[in-house]
UniProtKB/TrEMBL annotation:
Keyword annotations of the record: Transferase
InterPro entries documented for this protein: UDP_glucos_trans
Name of this protein: UD19 glucuronosyltransferase
GO molecular function: UDP-glycosyltransferase activity
Pfam families: UDPGT
Top-rank taxon: Eukaryota
Keyword Phosphoprotein attached: no
């Protein structure tokens, strides 16, 4: 099948750990994947496997830690 364009807006934490594998597999199959992530995150890091777009947020990592 032809690869298409995909936009992924994941949640941080275990949701992302599961979704990351799916996103990487889509990229391997020829899809152009853009992942929209917050600038403050626990586990979402830059990679060569897909395109990352980082958006600003109004909280710090300390506030994110304190929310849980």
């Amino acid at each position: 099948s032809d690869g298409g364009k995909r936009l992924v807006v994941p949640m941080d934490g275990s949701h992302w750990l599961s979704m990351r594998q799916v996103v990487e597999k889509l990229t391997e199959r020829g899809h152009k994947v853009v992942v929209l992530i917050p600038e403050v995150s626990w586990q979402m890091k830059t990679t060569q496997a897909y395109i990352l777009k980082i958006h600003p947020v109004s909280y710090t990592l300390e506030e994110l830690d304190g929310s849980l």
